[in-house]
Amino acid sequence: MKEECKKNKDVIILGIESSCDDTSAAIIRNGFLLSNVIASQAVHSAYGGVVPELASRAHQQNIIPTVSEAIKRAGVQKEDISAIAYTRGPGLIGSLLVGNSFAKGFATALNIPMVEVNHLQAHVLAHFIQEEGEEAHLPEFPFLCLLVSGGNSQIILVNAYDDMQIVGQTIDDAAGEAFDKCAKVLGGPYPGGPFIDKLAKEGDATAFTFSKPHIAGFDYSFSGLKTSFMYSIRDQLAENPNFIEERKADLAASIQKTVVDVLMDKLLKASRHYGIKRVAVAGGVSANSALRGAYQAYAQQYGWEIFLPKFSYTTDNAAMIAITALFKYKDGLFDSIDSVPFSKVVI
User: 200 in the Ramachandran plot: left (φ > 0), alpha (ψ -120 to 50) or beta?
Assistant: First the structure.
């Protein structure tokens, strides 16, 4: 099968992403995106977080119509597909099993190879997705990537698609988690990142000062920052019960600025240490406008070449799974039919 796949002129990859609460399917041909379909799960907003059992059930309902729509939009036939890629982990095990099982059935039915993809590596490699009619700005190896989401805050040294080293990471809460918890205090929805970002545009980012962690090396910590935010509000509410409502925008702007400052300070430190000025950002928090603005400012001040993903590639999506699989496909790195998902964070 491997030799037959290598002879194909066009390499068409079907990617499946089901690590958390979004069911996504995408088609990539020779590195160019043909379709990227995402089915979100609104049911979790009522619980203030993702409910694993509800997520896996929704994936079961969504995966077939999502894949069908992705193939339709791509204008290809399922028989044209060279390989199917899926997220093996990390993530919610029940959700991952849905994608894993579908990939096995699809690969067996069409007698095509299966490619397993690490979800975190895929976020980093999303920068290599190309679209027809758009000028490609692809990073050269090596480069640094700040991966920030609700579950991860990592600085990654990317030497090659299959050679990534985590040089810094959070020792407690992730940046996205800090946004979620602070947004909840301010009366916002889940996830809280977009709420904080929108509200912050109306506030004064210098209105409040919160304690910043002092962690050695390139590691992060957001637990103390979150606690500082909570204590500050508690003290203010003791004097003014309407404090949150009256200063909500300023609070959002101030916490957002503090989180971004912490992220960028360590990233600059890593850039100087490794002598690398090609710097990317990935993950859900990379959609944050203040973080993107900081990247632009650092690029001008420190001579960085920066790589900012399209908004559609910041959250979980199958396009990033498919492009990662393309690298592995070219090297003949196919998955076994008896492979199982993993929930642990591995890169």
Answer: alpha
Determine what percent of the chain falls in helix, strand and coil, rounding each to the nearest 5. Answer: 50, 20, 35
DSSP state string for 231-279? HHHHHHHHH-TTHHHHHHHHHHHHHHHHHHHHHHHHHHHHHHHHT--EE
Give the DSSP letter of residue 339.
Answer: -
Helix (H, G, I), strand (E, B) or coil at 163: strand
In the predicted model, is pLDDT for residue 242 greater than 80? yes
Closest-CA residue to 210 (of 177, 253, 245): 253
Exposed, middle or buried by CB within 10 Å (0-12, 13-18, 19+), for 244?
middle
Residue 293, C-beta contacts closer than 8 angstroms, at least 6 positions apart:
none
Average pLDDT over the chain reads 93
CB proximity list for 20: less than 8 A, separation 6 or greater: 50, 55, 91, 92, 95, 316
| Residue 9 CB neighbour total at 10 angstroms | 5
pTM for this model (two decimals): 0.91
Cα–Cα distance list, 47 to 8, 44, 128, 190 (Å): 47, 5, 35, 8
| Residue ranges with strand state E in the chain | 12-17, 23-29, 32-39, 83-89, 114-118, 143-148, 153-160, 163-169, 278-282, 305-307
Within a 10 A sphere around the Cβ of 78, how many other Cβ atoms? 15
Give mean pLDDT, residues 165-181.
94
Domain annotation for the chain: domains and CATH numbers = 2-135+316-330 (3.30.420.40), 143-275 (3.30.420.40)
Cβ contact 249:197 at 8 Å: no
